[in-house]
Amino acid sequence: MMQPRSRDKTFGTALLLVIALVWSVPLLWAIALSLRPPGAPIAIGSSWWGGGLSLASFARALSAAPFETYYRNTLIVVAGILIIQLVTVTLAGFVFARVKFPGRELLFILFLMQLLVPTAALIIPNYSTIRSMGLYDTLPAIMMPFWASAFGTFLLRQTFRTVPLDYEDAARIDGATWWQTLWHVYLPPARPALTAFAVTSISSHWNDFLWPLVVTSSVSTRTITVGLASFTQMGESGAEWGLLMAGTLLVVWPLLVLFIVFQKQFVASFVSSGLK
Amino acid sequence: MISKLRSIVLGLALLAPSVFLLGAFTVWPVLQTIINSFFRRNAATRGQPVWDGLGNFTRLFEDDQFIKVLGNTLLLVLITVPISLVLAFLIAVLLNQKIRGIGWLRSGIFYPTVLPMVSAATIWLLLYNVDFGLINSVFRDLGGSPRNFLGTSTLVLPAICVMLIWKQTGFLMVFYLAGLQGLPTDVMEAARLDGAGRLQTLRHVSLPLLRGTTVFITTIAVTGAFQTVDQLYVMTQGGPNNASNLLLFNIYETNFRFQDTGSAYAQTTILLALLLIFTIINAVVSDRRSHDAT
Question: Which residue of B has its CA nearest to A34?
């Protein structure tokens, strides 16, 4: 009775190992390519190793493109989006959870609309809005469309709803104002939800590409993904592959390192922000 | 009465930032898109909007290139979504056991989620390379002849699909994994005691219980697939001969390369309509299924 089950299990684990290996090949290959000595161009029969390891491609990549500017811009954009989002979604989530007034449900539909219409699909009209606001080619232009988040609002609304009403009543009797109540009663239990939201927000905006590409035009406002794309256009010829992969890894490493260190929390964040 | 007034003022005040931002970057753009679809606006009109009724739409649907783009987009959605979902479910089932190192296996499949699409596309550009790409070097080792995946019109869309499936399966998988781990153990135990095999239990107990998860990740996968664009910019530019051109990339090119703003707005309207149609179908189907189950 037990034997077929445990044989199943071994087979399952082996299959899993193969899948995980296949899935990891692109990243491992990219790392291998980036560490080849620049003088060892890739050739038939040497797709993985080029005789020795070298960091020269990283040094060349760093001097070939203004990565410092790219990193700085991306950090500003990601932080600038997240900080404002945390404020807007907390306030809106609080209202939808606990402040009743006529017409509230109508406003709720407005939020639903953002869930149905992905911001990425609206590049043409949003580009024209940014232009008419005179914000073209600035960092706020990249951030603004994401400052309100229906998704974050729903997440916080669900979380705030689980806080017992008695707590709020107790705080009110003690003479607490709405913001004291929000700060001391509602926010502490919402910390996991806010963390989950932060993780998904950071990783999705670190990865944004088309929108920053469309609303910026100068090197000084380029984010790292846009920088990489122009780097990629430099060439696909075999001799530059090490350079290309070094550039790619320079874009990828911050999130990848965070992910490897906090694997469990990362996965849990994505799941909890989706399921609530 | 005073407290009611207070609630209105407080509620509106706290919602104001979000409402303003959603109005400016979601509601108004949607209206703007629909309105502008009816105006011709390109180099010929010197960038000025000229009323044109349904002109943009009739021109689009008479244009073979646009029909091809639309077909490619639907094909990509219809190929990648079911395959990713099935793979995600199977991998989640395999991962749903307690063994040492399982977390690393999970991460080995989930990690593409945290890579920017542009970076992933740069890696796959080289993987698919005809001369020295890893995939072709494996082909060569197996005695086959190399193929120019991204340069052949019949291979390029499947190549983009494979890359997309690799990129998103891990992300979709973790929702199934969380769902499986949340299944009531007594139900699973009952199924086992009734003599149901593992596969039977999966098909007749787990899968129906995870219907909500399936509906949710179908929505994510479909909306994601409709927005496929970054990898085209890096890998194919929509080519060769539009064989990999997709709706959002075509919108981008129509507006920013060919300066045909009117047509770009009309295409955005079509994209929004497709997303809306899918949302309605998904809602109806999932609603009917839940009635069937009860």
Answer: B123
Domain spans in chain A, listed from the N-terminal domain onward: 68-226+254-275
Cβ of B126 within 8 Å of Cβ of A21? The answer is no
Calpha distance B244→B247 (Å, rounded): 10
What is the C-alpha separation between A49 and A42, in angstroms, rounded? 8
Nearest to A99 among B11, B124, B234 (CB): B11
Q: Which CATH number fits domain B67-115+148-293: 1.10.455.10, 1.10.3720.10, 2.40.260.10, 3.40.50.1100?
A: 1.10.3720.10
Report yes or no: B95 and B102 within 8 Å, Cβ to Cβ: yes
In angstroms, rounded to a whole number, what is the distance separating the alpha carbons of residues B203 and B197?
10
CA distance A63 to chain B (A): 19
Architecture of domain A68-226+254-275: Orthogonal Bundle (1.10)
Range list of H helices, chain A = 2-34, 56-64, 67-98, 104-116, 123-132, 139-143, 150-161, 165-173, 178-181, 191-207, 210-215, 224-232, 241-261, 263-275
What is the ipTM, given to two decimal places?
0.90
Q: Domain-by-domain residue ranges, chain B?
A: 67-115+148-293
pLDDT single digits (tens) B113-171: 999 999 999 999 999 998 888 998 888 888 888 889 999 999 999 999 999 999 999 99
Nearest to B140 among A44, A95, A145 (CB): A44
pLDDT band at A13 (very low <50, low <70, confident <90, very high): confident
> Which neighbouring-strand residues pair with B39?
B51
Range name among A163-167, A232-236, B106-110, B158-162 with the lowest pLDDT average: A232-236
